[in-house]
Amino acid sequence: MTIKEQIEKDFLEAYKAHDELRVSVLRMLKSSIKNAEIDKKTELNDSDVIAVLKKEIKQRKDSIEAYKEAGRAESAEQETKEMELLSSYLPSQMSEEDIRTIAQEAITQTGASGMQDMGKVIGSIMQKHGDSVDGGTVSKVVKELLSN
């Protein structure tokens, strides 16, 4: 079953169960996926759906920060619940230790010697492991390894 099919199935279950939060979030997600399909003029595969999910999760993270700065804890909590629900559709993410290991390998393979090669190393990692790693964590680890 594709991620898109799972989202549709879960939406129908949430609708029947009158789970307002899940219905709302999944309806928004389905809309974002549909808009991406219209932009691409083709049906999205799992990788494309994951990209949409990551974009929606990033929006939630940004909103949470803004709400916390504005002292709106209730709104931040709502966004956190939405983010957790969206995250459940992502494939499991690698741990920082695993990312550190593959970053070391990528540095060796690309022959990177300093910060000027950071883009090359990150590009290599994202190409091989894009859906299973967090870009921010990859960037942090690679920067740390190359600065030593």
Keywords:
148 residues; mainly alpha; Hypothetical Protein Yqey, Chain: A, domain1; Arc Repressor Mutant, subunit A; globular
As for the number of domains, it is: 2
CATH topology label of the largest domain:
Hypothetical Protein Yqey, Chain: A, domain1
Average of per-residue pLDDT values: 92
Percent of residues in beta strands: under 5%
Our Rg estimate from Cα atoms comes to: 18 Å
Shape descriptor reads: globular
Order of helices and strands: HHHHHHH
The structure class reads mainly alpha
> What CATH architecture of the largest domain would you give?
Orthogonal Bundle
Q: If helices are DSSP runs of H or I spanning 4 or more residues, what is the number of helices?
A: 7
Kindly, what is the distance between the CA atoms of the first and last residues, rounded to a whole number of angstroms?
44 Å
- Percent of residues in helices comes to over 70%
* Name of the CATH homologous superfamily of the largest domain: Uncharacterised protein YqeY/AIM41, N-terminal domain
CATH class of the largest domain: Mainly Alpha
Q: How many strand segments? A: 0
Low-confidence stretches: none
